[in-house]
Amino acid sequence: MSALLDIENLHVAYADGRVPVLQGISLQLQAGRTLGVVGESGSGKSTLAQALVRLLPAGARQTAGRVQFEGRDLGGLNERAMRELRGKAMAMILQDPLSSLNPLLTVGSQIAEVAQRHLGLNRAQAWQHAAELLRAVRLAEPEARLREYPHQLSGGMRQRVAGAIALAGHPQLLIADEPTTALDPTVQVQYLRLLKDLQERHGFALVLITHDLGIVARLCDDVAVMYAGRIVERGPAAVVFGAPAHPYTRALLGSLPSLHARAGALRAIPGQPPQPGRLPGGCSFHPRCALASAQCRAAVPPLASTGVAATACWHASTLLPLEATT
Amino acid sequence: MSLLQLDHIAMHYPLRRSVGRATGTVRALDDVSLSIAPGESVGLVGESGSGKSTLARIALKLQSPTEGTLRFRGEPVAERGTSLRAFRSAVQAVFQDPYASLNPRMRVGDTVAEPLRSLPRANRPHDIAAQVAAALAAVELPADAAQCYPHQFSGGQRQRIAIARALILQPALVVLDEPISALDVSIRAQILNLLAELRQRRGMAYLFIAHDLPAVAVISDRIAVMYCGQLIETGPAARVATAPLHPYTQMLFASVLDPHDAHAWERPLPIGEPASPVDPPSGCRFHPRCPHAIERCRVDAPALRDTTGGQIRCHLVP
Amino acid sequence: MNALRSQATLALATWRRHARHAPVLAIAVLAGLALVALGADLLAPYPPELTAMAHRYQPPFWLQGGSAAHLLGTDHLGRDVLSRLIHGARISLLVGVAAVLFAGICGTALGIAAGYFGGWFDQVVMRLVDAWLALPSLVFAIFLASIVGPSTTNLVIILGAIYWTRYARVVRSEVLSLRERDYVKLARIAGASPWRIMSRHLLPNVANTAVVLATLMLGSVVVTEASLSFLGVGVPPPSPAWGLMLSDGRKGLMAGYWWLTVFPGLSIMLLVLAASLIGDWLRDRLDPQLRPVQ
Q1: Is the ipTM reported for this complex over the cut 0.85?
Q2: Closest to A214 (Cβ–Cβ): which among B217, B259, B271?
Q3: pTM value?
Q4: What is the CA radius of gyration of chain C?
Q5: Which chains touch C (3 or more CB pairs under 8 A)?
């Protein structure tokens, strides 16, 4: 079965092509599966989300590679065709629920607008659809909510409305860029469960972009770890988190404080993530890596397969299994 | 004797719907009492509406409470004069946003030196430059950073600068309001380690406010949990983090998704949203979301009682 | 430290990129006018007050009856228009800049204090500003001028007294939001006195706004000064202020002596336009600070 989303060697650069932000991204996503994209600032994860829906900011360009969705090359589509896809087959949820919604329109009209545009429903049908969607995202008293304005809702409720808008067009692919970062912990956990349940019911593929390893470990089938614009490790979540192969992934997992931690210092990673346009030569992680060698400083390691997973490290084969942390 | 003592602090704001009459009150804090011993690290956790940031502002005397007193080393702190100056020298802060904590138009050295330069002339030291260099060294930044401007540094480095400024007066207490939540994940551990080490070396007390529960658990001696303007549980950090007593604390800590914890997903889901201090529920403010709530919880607001190893505000916990 | 140095280089590159879109022409015009004003004594072919009744109403040199001796013609008293224009530039710029500085200093200081302290002081200052602004500035200026009498110094004071209110209001609202910034709160926590906070933290951060406002206001001030001089309550005659030239030139307009009004009018327009364009560019450039790319 061909993949729903097939990204092949994608390169994106800012400043009219001079500052590389994504380099050589290759990913595949099957229908109905969940892919977690993990990274920090400078990793390019949000740029990847924007590149997929071709909504890159001004000055940013795709300089190489190909993105195929449902077998069609997105690069070959004109803006009109892309607009057909956006909001319908491809939907997005963003981090800030406050700026995702138009403060001057009621919740109902914002959801109905999508239904009218993409499903061809008339106004009455679209509002009915909107009420059903609000029920589906488990918002209490959905009919009352339709007439309310975004500022009358809490952050968690607004994010559910954003989810309803995303679902309104019956998407095949839902891209969620840090959807719960701005939410309280008890609200976050409910929202993530909601996303998973909706996915099971509606069968869309989910790309979850976040910096939170815990979310990815629990929710995603597959994970891609990004650092400085490249994928450094990729594979099934159980494999990547159970036996991480890349030093960055290992170091990151090892540095997280745990509720059951023993006393003593955390295993911190020295240095900081590089910014686009100011990458160190060779492997971008080498200034912070305990295993860095001359080869690491000289050349960028390719993403090489290690069975079911892949990792981009010159020393991948020499790494010993991580000792248990709990 | 406690270092900082907050007694029965209440913070109420009138809510004005339209011009003129107040149509309700926001009970941001209600009867909150907390004391911090010298050298003790107290972690304060809570979600939106809990009032933890308001409490931090009151503890820093940036804001006056509607009720209650703030005592420093046993004495109330005046609004101005020697009493306030002594307080300001001993209680410093680190805030969340490293990009907003530093004046973009001041050199780093001047920012770090500011607490020293703000001292009355008689108390001002003569070796300010040396002290700045020492403070920067303590946060593992090079001495020539003093000549640079904030925009030349990354978020993590700026937070180190903010910490250096907080340390330069050798404070007894540092209030840290979400000091790592705006930083990249790969450098949070660095800053946590730095904070822990500095505290150990200098014997400072911390009031560490965060929603990153594992981080709070690691750095605190004691944890205080707030919900909807009230303190609902306090106790030793290790106990509260692994065996919380209050149903809300249990719900809160169960929401932590630890990548190593295989059972995180199977725990019962929290319900509802954090209650708003604008119109708090009757009786126990947590009762609408509590899986164990009984009739009494709806009617009768529980008081904060002492229990083994801390305090608890719940009818159901003995 | 390499990271620091390259960050600084990036900031410099950002500045250069902004500078590339500068309104070069406007800056050249303003700089040119400033130079003319400074070197008026050297540049002007004649003293501005020199009368020569024999050569009254001479047209500019390219028209019939004109001569190269008076490039832009002469006025009703035979005074050389070009020389008067050049000296008029000095007056306009002098009065304009002085008034803007006076208004700026008073207005910024009051705005910062009102914004920072709040309370009754803020209320008093703002009500004063509101009342002041409610009065039409020109009428108010005429009123003040008729009380204190016409002189250049008085004019600067009057203009300053009118325009400080715009500064105060804008600066105060900016201070209201700056006051809530973390670094200001942290300065309070560090024990800084209000004076220190206002001078070290608030003032440098409103400086941008104040500078933009100053450039934009220069245009308004020059027009007001010209209007006042035109009405006879500004710079006293026989000073070659452009507004006065306009007023004097009115008499000749009916008779067709257009050069007496057109040239001073064009000069005023040029100065105001240049100042406004520069003000707009400064506002665009100074507001997004030199931040590294995130």
Answers
A1: yes
A2: B259
A3: 0.83
A4: 23
A5: A, B
